[in-house]
Amino acid sequence: MSGLWARYNKLLDAQPLLTKCFTSLTGFTVGDILAQKFVEPSDKPYDVMRTVRLGSFGFLFHGSTGHYFYGLLDSKLPGTKPVTVATKVIIDQTIWNPIFGCAFFGYLNAVEGKSWNDYTKKLNADLKTAVMGSWAVWVPAHTINFAFVPPAQRLLYINTIQIGYNIFLSFLGNKAVDEEKPPEL
């Protein structure tokens, strides 16, 4: 296991952006697989393309934006003092979280070939739930993240937590606008 960790850190040093993109691809893929296999009704057949959509979102959007966003936060707000950590969490959850939600639903909308009207309906139906659901997970997770996790490992830590959170996101992102509420976190 230590060899794998050393190899990951070597890749992170050599290719930080690409490594974080692949880390996010893994987190989003695993989260969707778990959502489809263990959370949603078992009478639905497994949707491979749904997993591809979620994984590609992780690779193309989450990994790259996470690399730059958390790098920016760390450069503008260095350190781990409680006020710095709290400021980073507040910025993440009040600014980045809604942007992320809009991008997540927008990406799924686009790759599924849906209309702008479908996108606005989805935002109206589910963005508030996604943002508020995020608070339950990410406020405590990011408090730990910004206080104790080295900046280079932030996205790995986030993706570890993200696997569980992606079960919620996968359900929310793939439910029809008029379906029932998502499962409790």
TrEMBL record:
Any one Gene Ontology cellular component term annotated for this protein: cytoplasm
Localization annotation: Membrane
Keywords: Membrane, Transmembrane, Transmembrane helix
Family, per entry: Belongs to the peroxisomal membrane protein PXMP2/4 family.
Family matches, as Pfam families: Mpv17_PMP22
Predominant cellular place of this UniProt entry's protein: membrane
Protein name from the UniProt record: Uncharacterized protein
Keyword presence, Hydrolase: no
Membrane topology: Multi-pass membrane protein
